[in-house]
Amino acid sequence: MGSRSDLTDAQWERLEPLLPVSNGRCGRWRDHRQVVNGVLYRIRTGVQWRDLPERYGPWKTVHERHRRWSADGTWEMLLRRVQAGADAAGEIDWDVSVDSTIVRAHHHAAGARHAPPPALKRGFAKAVRSDRIRAELIDRLAEVVREVRRSAARAAASPPRST
Asked: Where is the Insertion element IS402-like domain (predicted)?
């Protein structure tokens, strides 16, 4: 049984071709999808590495892959490539609007439909679904990159350890 933080099949299909391949020197890598889902779960929930559910494999494997990919810039590269693909497809609007105005919604707005109306054509609904898949994948990768950057900043700010 998967977790809410696990990648969907559609998200995985977009991400898998971008992932590094094993160089063969260190043996066969554990399934990337299982490990990436373990990293996403840990970042979403904030659990300790040792407390990762068993479905993600050995916690040491997930931690080591996350640490290695953080150090060599793999997470940053994945985010850039997925964003570039979305940008090339015209799926990213880079305009930013900042406004401090607050508009309260009516209490009936809480039950609004989340799915597009059935009258929409299939092609449009498929394009909207594809955009949402890529946007969610970008959000998840951005969350991992933010965590990597926070961790690096904490390490840089901490006093050096002497042995």
From this structure: 7-78
In a domain, 22, yes or no: yes
Q: Is residue 32 a contact partner of residue 75, using CB atoms and an 8 Å limit? A: no
Answer yes or no: is 104 within a domain.
no
Is 151 part of any domain? yes
Buried/exposed code over 82-119 (b: 16+ C-beta within 10 A; e: otherwise): bbebbeeeebbeeeeeeeeeeeeeeeeeeeeeeeeeee
- Tell me how crowded residue 141 is: count the other CB atoms within 10 A of its CB: 24
What three-state secondary structure class fits 13?
helix
Domain contains 113: no
Spatial separation of the C-alpha atoms in residues 146 and 12, rounded to whole Å? 20
Interval 84-127: pLDDT, tens: 988 888 877 777 666 666 666 666 666 655 665 555 555 555 56
Which residues form the domain of 143? 9-93+122-157
Concatenated DSSP letters of 86-100: HHHTT----------
